[in-house]
Amino acid sequence: MAAGRDTLATGRTQVGEWLRATAEVPVKWAENTAIPKVMDDMTPYIADEMMPKLIDAMMPQIRATVLPAIIEDLTTDRASVR
What we know:
This protein has about 80 residues and is mostly helical. It has one helix at about 1-80. It has one helix and no strands.
């Protein structure tokens, strides 16, 4: 039984190494070729379409939390200057 377990363990190791080696070439190609092209092609959409919608969706939260913090900070700074 021990020999069978060893054979299976060796087979698993060999298959894992083969899969990693086989997948390495397409992954490198995607990282170097496909992904940069997709990102370059998506940049105008992100800048022109997605970001304005995202900012519009976030404005109520910004007005509710960020602006009061800025105003508080500015009023505190002015008080320490006098």
